[in-house]
Design goal:
The chain has 220 residues and is of the alpha+beta class. It folds into two domains: 115 residues, no CATH class; 98 residues, no CATH class. The chain is built from six helices and ten strands; from the N terminus they run E-E-H-E-E-E-E-H-E-H-H-E-E-E-H-H. It is 32% helix and 30% strand. Bound molecules: zinc ion (ZN).
Length: 220
């Protein structure tokens, strides 16, 4: 069953105050409809009953896919390596085979869901993304703010990322060979296989990859 909480919201258009039931925890078995709504981002829209205005309303959400053994805990604007909820932490700490991640953006949540559904290794994807984004920053002369893996296909021999570049955070699609992921995967298997054994919700993002790559270069 979906777990709900009440929240009072004020419509930015007409000022109407409403009490809204927000869903804070779902699992794909009892709530299979949630996945599609997260992917098209309609899950976080709230519609004002008075004027009909749709407003984005971001709130924490724990997404569990126990069949495929992963949980993604979305907390808006998460800070690095923070463990957010001790109760949640202890409640799920015995699920040692379940990959547990905490993410700070909806894009990151979508990325983790797609990667775990395809049984991909998100640590290797983060390392690949960092390597590709560094090349991209050099070749374009622009800052790469963020990036997400949108496709990882062994059969097609490619990995595709959407990056956000420059002051305007311009969207930039970049595709490269699957080998980039394979190389990262071998680094993960050699140096970071213990990471997966850690209990609790891990924040596997660009900061993690930067630190992991720095340490890996130290081993060389
Ligand atoms: Zn309204």
């Amino acid at each position: 069953m979906a777990e709900k909480a009440e929240k009072i919201v004020t419509c930015p258009k007409c000022g109407e105050r409403s009490t809204v039931n927000i869903i804070v925890s779902v699992n794909t078995k009892s709530d299979p409809w949630v996945r599609k709504k997260i992917m098209d981002e309609s899950f976080f829209l709230w519609k004002c009953k008075k004027c009909g205005r749709n407003t984005k309303m971001l709130h924490p959400l724990l997404y569990s896919d126990i069949e495929r053994q992963f949980m993604v805990y979305y907390i808006p604007k998460v800070s690095r390596s923070q463990i957010f909820d001790d109760n949640l932490e202890s409640e799920f700490s015995d699920l040692s085979d379940v990959r547990k991640r905490v993410v700070g953006s909806i894009n990151a949540m979508k990325e983790k869901i797609v990667l775990f559904e395809n049984e991909s290794n998100d640590l290797a994807v983060e390392l690949s993304k960092l390597a590709v984004s560094e090349v991209l920053a050099k070749s374009t002369g622009q800052t790469v703010y963020d990036g997400y893996c949108t496709e990882l296909s062994k059969a097609q021999n490619r990995i595709t990322f959407q990056f956000f570049l420059g002051a305007n955070h311009r969207s930039y699609i970049h595709t490269t060979r699957y080998d980039v992921y394979n190389r990262s995967l071998s680094i993960v298997k050699e140096f970071y296989k213990d990471v997966e054994k850690k209990k609790g919700f891990l924040n596997i993002d660009r900061n993690w990859a930067t630190e992991a790559l720095r340490r890996y270069k130290g081993y060389q």
